[in-house]
Amino acid sequence: MSSVTSVKEASREKAMTGIQLLDEKMNGGFPRNSTLLLFSEIPAEKRIFAEQFVMAGVKNNETCLYVDFFRAPQLARREFTKFGTYPEDKLIIVDATSSQLLLPCTEKYAIKDVGNLEGILDVVSKAIREMRPQRIVIDSVEFLADRFPEEKVLDFWRRLSAEAREIGSTLCFLFINWTYDSSGISSMRDMTDYVVEFQSIISGGVVRSLMRIEELKDGGFKTNWVPYTFRDIVGVTVYFPRILVTGPFNAGKSTVVKNLCNTSISIDRMGTTVAFDYGNVNTMGLEAEVFGTPGQERFEFIFKIFAREVSGILLVVDASRPEDFERAKSMLKLVGPGLPFVIVANKSDLPDALSPQRIRDAIGLGQDVPVVSSIATRGVGLKEAFKLLAQQIIGVK
User: Fold this and answer.
1) Burial class (CB in 10 A: 0-12, 13-18, 19+), 97
2) Is the dihedral of CA 229, 234, 240, 243 positive or negative?
3) pLDDT tens string 334-344
4) Which of 103, 299, 326, 336 ranks highest by number of CB atoms within 10 Å?
């Protein structure tokens, strides 16, 4: 059974995120009767993940409930269209803004008084009982935290979680912590099954968005910080801003970049790369910028430039030339320990090509290092190698 098929079948028991690589890591997504906390200490792109989560459900013919304290329903529905067309009757919005703005409301469910927490709970509970949504999003808890005592907000959380579990729904709370101390956050975590934490960093003058997912039960998993971006229609994708394709001279690096990437360019001289190759990969719900470097020692200065802030490495070797493996080892040493990498054993169709295990032994690698046989001229093995690298970068601890 393919991983894509298994994820689709798991969607009956799991709430898929719609981000293929993450869904595979979580064996199909989040369990149906779980509570999620989308959390950050500073403003970050949590809402786009929540919207992605809702749209993944709606497009899977699930009824989804979105409680919005910040946007008028007309605006929210318009913003959801950036994910493409969807069955509008599957998206139920609880309107909490029209009353604040003194506007007429056309939604079936509306909160008339945002200063009455019991009234808010009554409206949301009624929507849950009547519509029985498979996914529920509360956007956002900080709106309530600014207006009501902490113990009442936590009780709201507890009671809503119980109602969602009763119907087997996946409930998602958004929260920026501007208000609570560590005990308040601890109380939230005690009522939560998964935390999706978000942060933004500035790297090279560019703002990058990162998230990580943690399962809070004993023995639960935790991913690394995963970079992501958003593309209209496509939605949220895992995004690696720099994947390095490198290796000894004439191993086939440029061919790997060309046949792995959707688009690519090569800066060369007389048929030999003396600057770099560049390409963009967009596949399996992830996107990456790929840089290929020349393999000769005299061009190591170029290699070192592109090796900065790299997410991971595809190390290309000619499987039929073990005499080049020492150079491959030295290139790994240049980037230092701890960086995810996969060996691409190119030209594996040649008669004297070594097996992956013999290549692993010759380079002195552990059994946990992937070595993928490839024929770059035909694109064989390249997506497999790239996917294995992406899984290493995401990681599960």
Assistant:
1) buried
2) negative
3) 777 788 999 99
4) 299
**Contact call for residues 302 and 293 (beta carbons, < 8 A):** yes
The answer to whether 281 and 386 are in contact (CB under 8 A) is yes
C-alpha 110 chain-centroid distance? 33
Q: How many CA atoms lie within 13 A of 378 on its CB side?
A: 9
Least confident of 12-16, 40-44, 93-97, 278-282: 40-44
Domains 3-233 and 238-394 agree in fold: yes
CATH says 238-394 is which class? alpha beta
Report the 10 Å Cβ neighbour count for 143: 20
Cα–Cα dist 383/314, whole Å: 11
381 phi-psi bin (left φ>0, alpha ψ -120 to 50, beta other):
left
Question: Which value, in Å, is the radius of gyration of the alpha carbons in the chain?
Answer: 24
CB-CB contact of 167 with 128 (8 Å): yes
pLDDT value of position 8: 47
CATH number of the 3-233 domain: 3.40.50.300
Domain residue spans in the chain?
Answer: 3-233, 238-394
- Identify which has the larger pLDDT, 305 or 10: 305
Question: What's the pTM?
Answer: 0.85
Quote the CA–CA distance of 191 and 185 in Å, as a whole number: 10
Q: What's the pLDDT score for residue 242?
A: 87
Residue 196 and residue 49 in contact, taking contact as beta carbons nearer than 8 Å = yes
Give the tokens for residue 208: 């990058």
Token pair 């308040």 is at which residue?
Answer: 184
